[in-house]
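Recall that a protein's primary structure is simply its ordered list of amino acids. Everything else, from secondary elements to tertiary packing, is in principle encoded there. The following example makes that idea concrete.
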Amino acid sequence: VDFYNQINLLYGSITEFCSPTTCPEMKATDEFEYLWHDPPKFPKPTRLPAPTYISHLLTWTSNHLSNATLFPTAPGVPFPADFEKTVRMIFKRLYRIYAHIYCHHYTVIRGLGLEPHLNTGFKHYVLFVEEFGLAEEGGSGGKGKGEWWGPLGELVESMLRSE
C-alpha cells in the first residue's frame, strides 16, 4: 500500500506535465512501450496515452489492494493461491510508472525539487523487490532480472551497489 501511495502522490505532482499531447504513448524508451491489458474491458493489449494508462493502472492497483479476497484483513483468513502472482503483477505494473517518470519527466521532477523523493521512493521499491525476489526469473514471465528492470537497469544496479 505504501508503494502505491507514494507513486500515486509523486505522479500526482507532475500530472500537468504528462498529458495525451506530451505523452501520447505509455513508454519509458522507444524500446519499452507498455500496453494496457485488463480483461474484459481491455481483452487485448491496448496502446493508451500515458496519463490514461497510469490512471487505469492506479485504479486497477487500488481495486486489488482493497479486495479482501486478495488481501485478507480478517484473522485466520488465508491468502489466495495466486497471491504471489498478483503481488508480482502489481509491482511490475507500478514499476512502469517509475520508468515513465525517470525517462520522460525527470527534468520536471528536478525542477520541482522532488528528485530526492523520487530517488528514495524508487530505491525503497527496488530493495523491496530484490528482498522478496519479485523480479526473479520464475515470476517475471520467463524474463531475467535485467529485462524486468528494462530501461532503469543501470540505475537499479547502481542503487543495489550502494545499499
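The CA atoms of residues 35 and 47 lie 5 Å apart. The beta strands are 27-29, 32-33, 36-38, 42-46.
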